[in-house]
């Protein structure tokens, strides 16, 4: 019984010492900052241009460009299919034959793709991704864009 009271007294002293409290707070804040990118990405659902390239090359992801046909003709990701945002609900079955294939949705800035991702997911596609920042981010990353049959 005597050893228990000494141990309890040491535990209380550890948590009341300001130096230890500061170290505990620093450890908790560091852990939260390390986890923040994973937590933030999960909520957004967006992927970078490099991650999209990996999905396209390694897992045969289907790329769907949601911009109007005129914008699509000016430049788009290689092998992208054009289904305008306004028509996504009507043409949802044309995205991919296998609903287990990854789908990457692209628009100009990523905002329309984010809204369309809910519709595509609800249609039964297992893995739906949004290109974060859209075609703008793709081009800023120096990735290729197809324009009138030529790669730019």
From TrEMBL:
Q: Which SUPFAM superfamilies match?
A: Rhodanese/Cell cycle control phosphatase (SSF52821)
Which InterPro entries does this UniProt record tie to the protein? GlpE_sulfurtransferase (IPR050229), Rhodanese-like_dom (IPR001763), Rhodanese-like_dom_sf (IPR036873)
Q: Where are the transmembrane segments?
A: 20-39
- The answer, when asked if Translocase is one of the entry's keywords, is no
> Keywords in UniProt for this one?
Membrane, Transmembrane, Transmembrane helix
Residues forming the Rhodanese domain are 57-147
Query: Per its record, how is this protein called by name?
Result: Rhodanese domain protein
Q: Which organism is it from?
A: Caballeronia insecticola
């Amino acid at each position: 019984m005597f050893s228990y009271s000494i141990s309890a007294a040491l535990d209380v002293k550890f948590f009341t010492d300001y130096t230890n409290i500061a170290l505990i707070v620093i450890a908790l804040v560091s852990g939260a900052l390390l986890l923040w990118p994973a937590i933030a990405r999960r909520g957004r659902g967006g992927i970078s241009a490099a991650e999209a390239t990996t999905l396209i090359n390694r897992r045969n992801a289907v790329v769907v460009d949601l911009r109007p046909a005129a914008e699509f003709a000016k430049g788009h990701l290689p092998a992208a299919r054009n289904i305008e945002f306004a028509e996504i609900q009507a043409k949802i079955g044309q995205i991919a034959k296998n609903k287990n294939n990854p789908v990457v949705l692209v628009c100009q800035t990523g905002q329309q793709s984010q809204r369309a991702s809910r519709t595509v997911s609800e249609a039964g596609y297992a893995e739906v991704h949004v290109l974060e920042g859209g075609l703008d981010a793709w081009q800023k990353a120096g990735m290729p864009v197809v324009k009138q049959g030529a790669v730019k």
